[in-house]
Amino acid sequence: MSDANTRTTAGAGTPDRIDTTRPHSARFWNYFVGGKDNYEVDREIGDHIKEIFPGLVDVAVTSRHFLGRAVRHLAGEQGTRQFLDVGTGLPTADNTHEVAQRVAPDARIVYVDNDPIVLAHANALLTSTPEGKTAYLDADLHDPDAVLEAAAGTLDFSRPVALMILNTLGHVADYEQARELVRRLMAGLPSGSHLVISDSTATSEGMIAASAAYNASGAVPYYVRSIGEIAGFFDGLELVDPGVVQVTEWRPEPSDSAHPADPAASVDAYCGVGRKP
């Protein structure tokens, strides 16, 4: 591992923390985007939910495309060189650091997760260009002060940072608590920083049914929210055009037409990018 990569000490016995007897959101999402880091229990609930609501696969794939477009916009048009990715999940293709460093090789990226599955795959995340740096923190969204303190070892908080929270806030059951966690994280970042959020939304009966089935599976629950609630996370920020929209509608690119969803079809996931004044 090169000097451009850093990881916090996870402690011995991390694999023992991995529970393969019930579904797990990171592995479940990994299965939906075509990854191989999942178990039979994840594939079983995944296949069950596909029967209930096939559109959730499109949500997973198109949300991943949004990540790429948002990072390219920030690294390219906005000149952002620092990214704080909270709730990163399992590595697949085109992770935040890969997208950012293709645009700006000197970009620095800090991944934050407290999940043993993700921790076990930290080495896959910890690749970086020689000019940049990638770090992984074993930390919890519910403790934003600890996240910021640890991230300061890699990021310069006197310069703008892009805070990425993608398909993660649904794990915080109480909406006002989720908003407060986002507010506290953004409060630690300087003017010119950006907030990037995407999440599944309760915008169809199919998505609501899929969420209920997932939550009944024994996995850690994930709550889908309204479009207005997603927009509420950006209060006090300057929304980047086109605002809070479906993930397929945020600055779409021709290459995205390769995803399995009909580009004109409705997708039950909304996103936005906001700038801190």
Protein architecture, described:
It is a single chain. The chain is an alpha/beta fold and 277 residues long. The chain contains ten helices and nine strands. It has helices spanning 25-32, 40-52, 55-76, 96-103, 116-120, 122-125, 144-151, 175-187, 205-215, 227-232, and strands spanning 5-7, 82-86, 108-113, 133-138, 162-166, 194-200, 238-239, 245-246, 269-275. The longest helix has 22 residues, at 55-76. Residues 9-15 have low confidence and may be disordered.
Give the topology.
Blueprint: E1 5-7, H1 25-32, H2 40-52, H3 55-76, E2 82-86, H4 96-103, E3 108-113, H5 116-120, H6 122-125, E4 133-138, H7 144-151, E5 162-166, H8 175-187, E6 194-200, H9 205-215, H10 227-232, E7 238-239, E8 245-246, E9 269-275
Parallel strand pairs: 1-4, 2-3, 2-5, 3-4, 5-6
Antiparallel strand pairs: 6-9, 7-9, 8-9
Helix pairs in contact: 1-2, 2-9, 3-4, 7-8
